[in-house]
Amino acid sequence: MGYWDMRKKYVLLRDCSEMDVLAEDILNNYGLPLVVKNTNINSFIKERLEQFNVERVLIYEFESDIFCNDISERNEIYEQYKTNIDCLKDLLNKLSSGKEIEKKMITNISDSIYSWQDDQEKVISMLTKVKSADVYTYTHCLNTAFYSMLIAKWLRLSQEDIKKAIQSALLHDVGKIKIDTEILNKKGSLTDEEYNEIKNHSLYGYEILKTMGNIDIDVMNGVLHHHERIDGSGYPFGIKGNKINIFSKIVSIADVYDAMISDRVYKRRTSPFEVFKLFLTTGIGAFDPSILDAFINNISVYYTGSNVWLNNEKTGEIVFIPPYDVSNPIIHVESEYIDLSLQSDMKIVCII
User: Fold this and answer.
1) What's the CA gap between 23 and 271, in Å, rounded?
2) At residue 239, what are phi and psi to the nearest 5 degrees?
3) Do 316 and 333 touch, CB atoms closer than 8 A?
4) Is this prediction's pTM over 0.70?
5) What angle do CA 107, 212, 237 make, to 5 degrees?
6) CA distances from 172 to 37, 63, 167, 295, 331 (A)
7) Pair 351, 272: CB distance under 8 Å
8) In angstroms, rounded to a whole number, what is the distance separating the alpha carbons of residues 31 and 58?
9) Of 42, 175, 186, 272, whose CB is crowded by the most CB atoms within 10 A?
């Protein structure tokens, strides 16, 4: 059961425990968010809300057996993830060898991903832990599909369109099966010729799906245009704005996000908060702002409570993510709270 399905109740703030989760945004007198919905309450957040004279909060009402079910469901999603990796390997291997595949192979995986749409916390927790460089080709496609599902859900798209977003993401890199693996896994700089070949993968993917004859045109265009950018700086055609369909716009954000927070054969992963900074600076003109806002504002809250490794070689726990500055969380390190917005020389290396 996800938060979407849970009953809610008002309780006194002083009676909240660290197991409680906010069921609505808490606003200040000017209507600006102090703490956002789906945040886990902790002592730092309670103290912050008390400073603003907040006395009662709306929380989700967990059932008595929720924690036993929670462990079972976390194991279930991970087992489904591993099964989907195997199915995706089979699908791509068949395509790579020129064999025909049934559309059911694609829909089975996408339906499995869709089934977890209401369990956002479990999905994000699982994706944070699955970072294997050894099978990156497969995990990246699957992870991008999960993130695209979440974005489509947060945008309140229809069931049909959420599934189109999932399938577009699942297949977004299918064209790479036509590119030499030595180029794909090269650790050094690419030549112009090699880079241009990699840029062809979205075209190759579109052509592969077109020959199948049973893939939705929206999904095919989602694959074709997932490297296009709304300012026209993308490829393969340099189209911009509304000429790029919503599924490409969703996948483009999910694709970049997962690539940057994942280990690769040629680079170490970065933290989600560094990616948020990228999106909110250089990414502002490249990605659809309404989709980007929906993604960052919703996913960031789920990192509250995460343990992190800092560049000063210390570990800490994220206790608060300011809604107005999500790339600079408050971190509890040893006996002090560190506000990253005030520490320009300190940053999160990774979530651990």
Assistant:
1) 27
2) -75, 165
3) yes
4) yes
5) 100
6) 32, 39, 8, 19, 36
7) yes
8) 17
9) 272
Q: How far apart are the C-alpha atoms of 38 and 36, rounded to whole Å?
A: 7
Phi then psi for 114, rounded to 5 degrees? -60, -30
Distance separating alpha carbons of residues 173 and 206, to the nearest angstrom: 10
How far apart, in whole angstroms, are the C-alpha atoms of residue 113 and residue 88?
12
Secondary structure of 216-241 in HEC code, one letter for each residue: CHHHHHHHHCCCCCCCCCCCCCCCCH
- Given a contact cutoff of 8 angstroms between Cβ atoms, the answer to whether 112 and 145 are in contact is no
Q: State how far the Cα of 37 lies from the Cα of 343, in Å rounded to an integer.
A: 27
Closest CA to 124 of 299, 344, 343, 337: 299
Tokens 């560190």 locate to 338
Q: What is the full per-residue pLDDT of the chain (352 aa) written as tens digits?
A: 455 567 899 999 999 998 899 999 999 988 999 999 999 999 999 999 999 999 999 999 876 555 555 667 778 888 999 999 999 999 999 988 888 888 899 999 999 999 999 888 889 988 987 765 557 788 999 999 999 999 999 999 999 999 999 999 999 999 999 999 889 888 888 999 999 999 999 999 999 999 998 899 999 999 999 999 999 999 999 999 999 999 999 999 999 999 999 877 667 789 999 999 999 999 999 999 999 999 999 999 999 999 999 999 999 999 999 999 999 999 999 989 999 999 989 999 989 8
- AA letter at 275: V
Helices 103-114 and 159-170 cross at an angle (nearest 10°) of 120
Residues with Cβ < 8 Å from 264, sequence gap 6 or more?
Answer: 133, 136
